[in-house]
Design goal:
A: 205 residues, seven-stranded mixed β-sheet, 7 strands, 27% helix, disordered N terminus, B: 120 residues, mainly alpha, DUF742 (chain B)
């Protein structure tokens, strides 16, 4: 290219900025956006993708006459950790019929947290199966709702058939320090998994 | 003037700004960060309204593809096509997303994210 060496003030030579992402999954209304908002430095943002013709048969077109596309919204937040390091938190769309969007969200992710509401525990099955299948490191976080029945962590582990090596923590998605602890657990678990894959630790069992 | 409801639905209309192209020049990750210098932003003035909006969003503060889509209120797929064009045209600088391979590189990134979280 003719102007390959023309680079006023280093216009195209800026310092590399690395970004990482953690995925927040769980059923509709489980508190994913609340969790993101509790720790994000920006108000959670929403980006929309259009569901094209491939998904039309799945959506219920009778509800919106004449509408052949649906928008899939996902919420996300941002934590700028250093000038050259940004962590993004992506919430998955609540409805599991938007799997195609999940593939895009988890690609390259550090790991995931599956939020669980003890009043609707079965909502967690789909994301748990999904991350298990995709081999993405994940942790399970019980979001404490004031009016929800309180269970022991081990009861929940049994009910959800979560394997012993998957971390299970209690959290309050409204509280920053609690959310921070969930994210720390995700990253620590991802590091352990990565080390185990490279033979740094003997697998349990 | 209110746009008339198209009986064929809204399938293609959002892609009018990309002249109908739906495939980006490169598949930029949701979290991949883009930045724009004042020089690049000034050049983007001549690249059309939508590209100039994108440049303005990234000037002074690096933004991910997802943030650009959210701030410009454009659908993700449309934004990705325009952003990939702008990278090819030298109007935006694309930074790397998390390294997907290499044990040492991945461990290093995880370690940095972990200490970043603990310092919050």
């Amino acid at each position: 290219m003719d102007f390959a060496n023309y680079d006023p003030a280093g216009a195209n030579r800026s310092r590399e900025i690395i970004s990482a992402k953690i995925v927040i999954a769980g059923g509709f209304g489980v508190g994913k956006t609340t969790l993101v908002g509790a720790i994000s430095e920006i108000q959670p943002l929403t980006t929309e993708a259009l569901m094209t013709a491939a998904g039309v048969g799945i959506d219920d077109p009778s509800k919106v006459p004449g509408k052949e596309t649906t928008t899939v919204a996902m919420d996300f937040g941002r934590i700028t950790m250093a000038e050259d390091l940004i962590l993004y938190l992506f919430g998955t769309p609540g409805q599991t019929r938007f799997w195609f969007m999940w593939d895009e969200i988890i690609r390259g992710a550090v790991g995931a947290a599956v939020l669980v509401d003890t009043r609707r525990i079965t909502d967690a099955f789909a994301p748990l199966d999904y991350f298990e299948n995709r081999n993405l490191p994940y942790v399970v976080a019980l979001n404490r709702f004031d009016d929800a029945p309180q269970y022991e962590l081990e009861e929940v582990r049994e009910a959800l058939a979560i394997s012993p090596d998957v971390p299970l923590v209690m959290c309050d998605a409204r509280r920053r320090d609690s959310v921070k602890q969930v994210l720390v657990t995700v990253v620590e678990h991802a590091m352990l998994r990565l080390q185990a894959e490279h033979g740094f630790a003997a697998p349990v069992g | 003037m209110e746009p008339r409801r198209d009986p064929r639905g809204a399938l293609v209309r959002p892609y009018a700004v990309t002249r109908g192209r739906t495939e980006p020049l490169q598949n930029i990750a949701l979290e991949a960060v883009l930045s724009c210098t004042p020089t690049q932003s000034a050049e983007a003035r001549f690249a059309g309204h939508d590209k100039y909006r994108i440049a303005s969003v990234c000037e002074g503060r690096a933004q991910s593809l997802a943030e650009i889509a959210a701030y410009t209120r454009m659908p993700l797929g449309v934004t990705r096509v325009l952003v990939a064009d702008m990278v090819a045209e030298g109007l935006l600088t694309l930074h790397t997303a998390a390294p997907a391979t290499g044990f040492a590189a991945r461990m290093n990134l995880l370690g940095r994210v972990l200490s970043g979280l603990r310092e919050l």
